[in-house]
């Protein structure tokens, strides 16, 4: 025992000293690959030292082999990675192998290693690999450590003959399916705002897959060997090794810094990593990441596709199916192949340069890797020369019909050919967006917007029909491509984008009227969503102003589809049926105005809702109470609230005859939110809205949206959609009761908001990320006849809505209705208010005071100085 303690002490000293050396090498800019190899070698050395301390009799009885598998088998060990070991034993010696493992492994657990191990015979390895693809890939890169080398060789030969070689095509398909599943789980693109270094597309796992395929097909996983054999081009080999070193460096730094396995590259970590790697900011760091991982995807896809074995029959079939796709181009085995001996000269002709991409789109084909490299070189050499008018016509043809437009544009972007056509697009290459509401880089979001537009061609329902009826879809698709091209500058991106769209329109030969439409779509690409989601367009002035700006039905159709595609392209969960309904409603009413077909007047709609409400509620409530209550419901509430919710609200309002304060709650499974509705009377307490938001914030609820209404009879119906971070799924009844009691206590004066915050300690305990959105407060006196509308755009933080509501109350303003929305990292809040005299705020000094006070309160909170 004393001997083992001494051995462990020696190993700890060695482990600590060598770890410091490796960390110092990393901190001084050492290569990422050398660091993971050094850590793997250190683990080897410690394992062998520990192995030598075991009773020789036990080792002899075992008679097996210790094998490194998985990443450790590749000799790639990150600072906090697990070690995967296999104790291979001859038939009949499983018990001895288990005893040996139990003697050896405690050494390494004591050193802080996380060791996963298995105990198998050769036959068990083969059986497990056939049943489980993960086991198969981990055994594929097995590495001998110590023991019986002959047994290891027996295992190695059996594995490759029975698992890989005998079923090579099936094994490769299995690898490919695993890779596809991984990409689906971690996102289909590398251009995510917060990617996973290992699992996201283009990350380390894609390089692992390439090497697994190479090992199965060519019996080597060495990138250098693949390059020497001509299986990787010089550019591909250089790109892969550069990307691999870059990814390992980042991963090593994450592990060293956190002291644990860490692969999720959050925005906060990006900020911390950028200076370590000598980048000016996280945007530059991530731009490099996206460029390299983009090449990894393209190279690995090409390599794996070419590695699949082709039978003699398949080769004959490919030759037989080869045909002329266009003059100078053949379609062969799913690839467009130029028929020219000098490709640089051939693609120096702009028509040939664009035609190959048009053929790729039309035939759903690929471009061979060597040809892609030539296209890249030609595009860079001729970058300052505008494309010819004939080539511009071909590009417009690419945009004209839905189907693989986005995929084609992506390839044009990667080869820089798109930059020849639209030079402005080069600036947004892998440009990182500062807003958390966007999941992708600017260029990838733009391609996804085009993709979402194309998908509408096959979509039923009203949105698909609107897309189908659009004339000149090339202009729509071009607007989708360019709508965010102005980002990355200090000026408003829509205004900058409009100027760049004008230049692109000239380059592509569009007529004046066509360019004017393109410029409008880019400059005002946000207007439809702003009006539909954040304005009360049941107000006639709002609707008329919107329709007047759009001016034409065909423009409205294009703007509507652009808006839908843009929202859907932001990321998962950003498109909801609620947004779709509001956008369609605004579209329909604006179209009625523009086409001269009179929609139902607001008064008529309200009358129909009231009549239906009377019919549904008849006999359920006293007739006099029902009539007075229905007459008191304001038009804005009736027009914007689902009818089923109005019926539920009516029942709750009747409950106020017994209890003047009532709180109802229901879980919304589609969004994972809980909806709380407060029913009471306006005169029950001053500052009703601010107190309700204060209670919700003090209880730790994140307010994602709200609809606030004070009816003309003084009844209040305030509905809040919240996320409760303390629960997943439906909130238990006791939690709802706690919230309800807190609301009641505050409204009747038994409790204060400040006391709730003090007990809850919700503020100050959560580190907020740095704000990415500027605070903006606007007052609008034109869009409503009776109210001043306050628009607030600001970075979201906990309790912000309470701060805003309290400030509005302190200014002596009354909130008659409000529309609250949270877009992941920012709020877009709209308040319909009146001054102390029950009128609009028209005094210029008061307007200035409101804007200044709200801006200051929000900014103080966002910098950590506020409440």
TrEMBL record:
Protein keywords: Hydrolase, Magnesium, Multifunctional enzyme, Nucleotidyltransferase, Repeat, Transferase
Residue ranges, annotated region (Uridylyltransferase): 1-324
Cofactor(s) the protein needs: Mg(2+)
Domain HD: 442-553
Catalysed conversion reaction: [protein-PII]-uridylyl-L-tyrosine + H2O = [protein-PII]-L-tyrosine + UMP + H(+); [protein-PII]-L-tyrosine + UTP = [protein-PII]-uridylyl-L-tyrosine + diphosphate
Entry's EC annotation: 2.7.7.59, 3.1.4.-
PANTHER family on file: BIFUNCTIONAL URIDYLYLTRANSFERASE/URIDYLYL-REMOVING ENZYME, BIFUNCTIONAL URIDYLYLTRANSFERASE_URIDYLYL-REMOVING ENZYME
The protein, known as: Bifunctional uridylyltransferase/uridylyl-removing enzyme
Source organism of this protein record: Candidatus Manganitrophus noduliformans
Lineage of source species: Bacteria, Pseudomonadati, Nitrospirota, Nitrospiria, Candidatus Troglogloeales
Gene: glnD
């Amino acid at each position: 025992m004393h001997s083992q303690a001494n051995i462990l002490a020696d190993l700890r000293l060695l482990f600590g000293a060598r770890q410091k050396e490796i960390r110092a090498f990393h901190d001084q800019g050492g290569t990422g690959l050398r660091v993971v190899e050094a850590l793997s070698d250190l683990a080897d050395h410690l394992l062998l030292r520990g192995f030598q301390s075991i009773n020789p009799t036990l080792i002899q009885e075992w008679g097996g082999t210790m094998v490194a598998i998985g990443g450790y088998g590749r000799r790639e060990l990150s600072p906090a990675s697990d070690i995967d070991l296999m104790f291979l034993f001859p038939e009949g010696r499983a018990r001895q192998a288990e005893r040996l493992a139990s003697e050896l492994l405690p050494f390494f657990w004591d050193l802080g290693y996380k060791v996963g191990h298995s105990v198998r015979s050769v036959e068990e390895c083969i059986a497990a690999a056939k049943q489980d693809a993960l086991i198969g890939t981990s055994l594929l890169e097995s590495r001998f450590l110590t023991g019986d080398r002959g047994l290891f060789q027996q295992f190695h030969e059996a594995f490759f003959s029975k698992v890989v070689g005998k079923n090579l095509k099936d094994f490769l398909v299995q690898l490919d399916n695993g890779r596809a599943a991984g990409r689906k789980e971690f996102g289909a693109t590398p251009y995510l705002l917060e990617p996973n270094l290992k699992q996201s597309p283009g990350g380390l796992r894609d390089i692992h897959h390439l090497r697994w395929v190479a090992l199965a097909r060519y019996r080597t996983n060495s990138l250098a060997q693949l390059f020497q054999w001509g299986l990787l081009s010089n550019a591909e080999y250089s790109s892969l090794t550069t990307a691999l070193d870059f990814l390992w460096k980042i991963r090593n730094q994450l592990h060293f810094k956190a002291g644990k396995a860490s692969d999720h590259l959050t925005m906060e970590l990006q900020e911390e990593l950028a200076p370590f790697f000598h980048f000016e900011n996280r945007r530059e760091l991530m731009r490099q990441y996206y460029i390299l991982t983009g090449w990894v995807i393209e190279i690995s896809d090409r390599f794996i596709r070419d590695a699949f074995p082709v039978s003699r029959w398949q080769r004959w079939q490919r030759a037989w199916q080869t045909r002329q796709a266009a003059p100078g181009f053949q379609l062969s085995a799913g690839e467009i192949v130029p028929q020219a001996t000098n490709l640089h000269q051939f693609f120096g002709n702009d028509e040939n340069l664009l035609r190959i991409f048009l053929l790729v789109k039309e035939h759903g084909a690929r471009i061979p890797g060597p040809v892609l490299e030539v296209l890249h070189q030609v595009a860079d050499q001729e970058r300052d020369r505008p494309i010819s008018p004939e080539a511009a016509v071909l590009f417009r043809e690419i945009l004209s019909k839905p189907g693989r437009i986005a995929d084609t544009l992506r390839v044009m972007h990667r080869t820089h050919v798109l930059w020849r056509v639209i030079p402005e697009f080069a600036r947004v290459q892998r440009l990182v967006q500062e807003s958390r509401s966007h999941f992708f880089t600017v260029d990838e979001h733009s391609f996804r917007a085009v993709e979402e537009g194309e998908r509408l061609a096959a979509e039923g329902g009203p949105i698909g029909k609107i897309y189908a009826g659009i004339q000149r879809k090339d202009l729509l698709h071009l607007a989708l491509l360019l709508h965010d091209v102005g980002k990355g500058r200090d000026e408003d991106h829509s205004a900058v984008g409009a100027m760049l769209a004008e230049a692109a329109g000239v380059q592509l030969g569009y007529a004046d009227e066509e360019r004017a439409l393109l410029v409008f779509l880019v400059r005002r690409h946000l207007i439809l969503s702003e009006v539909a989601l954040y304005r009360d367009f049941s107000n006639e002035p709002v609707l008329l102003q919107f329709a007047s700006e759009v001016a034409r039905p065909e423009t409205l159709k294009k703007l509507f589809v652009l808006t839908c595609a843009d929202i859907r392209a932001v990321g998962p969960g950003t498109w909801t049926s609620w947004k779709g309904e509001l956008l369609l409603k605004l579209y329909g009413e604006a179209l009625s105005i523009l086409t001269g077909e009179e929609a139902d007047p607001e008064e008529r709609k309200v009358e129909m809702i009231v009549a239906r409400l009377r019919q549904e509620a008849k006999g359920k409530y006293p007739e006099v109470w029902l009539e007075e209550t229905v007459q008191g419901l304001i038009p804005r509430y009736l027009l914007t609230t689902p009818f089923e919710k109005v019926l539920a609200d009516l029942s709750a309002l009747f409950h106020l005859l017994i209890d003047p304060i009532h709180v109802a709650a229901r879980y919304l499974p589609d969004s994972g939110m809980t909806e709380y509705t407060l029913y009471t009377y306006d005169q029950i307490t001053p500052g009703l809205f601010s107190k309700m938001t204060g209670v919700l914030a003090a209880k730790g609820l994140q307010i994602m949206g709200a609809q606030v209404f004070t009816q003309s009879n003084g009844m209040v119906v305030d509905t809040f959609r919240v996320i409760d971070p303390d629960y997943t799924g439906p909130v238990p009844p006791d939690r709802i009761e706690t919230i309800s009691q807190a609301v009641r206590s505050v409204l009747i004066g038994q409790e204060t908001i400040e006391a709730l915050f003090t007990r809850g300690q919700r503020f100050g305990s959560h580190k907020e990320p740095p704000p990415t959105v500027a605070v903006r407060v606007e007052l609008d006196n034109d869009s409503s006849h009776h109210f001043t509308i306050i628009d607030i755009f600001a970075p979201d933080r906990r309790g912000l809505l309470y701060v805003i509501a309290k400030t509005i109350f302190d200014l002596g303003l009354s909130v008659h209705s409000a529309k609250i929305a949270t877009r992941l990292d920012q709020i877009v809040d709209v308040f319909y208010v009146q001054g102390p005299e029950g009128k609009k705020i028209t005094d210029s000094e008061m307007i200035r005071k409101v804007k200044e006070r709200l801006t200051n309160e929000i900014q103080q909170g966002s910098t950590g100085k506020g409440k």
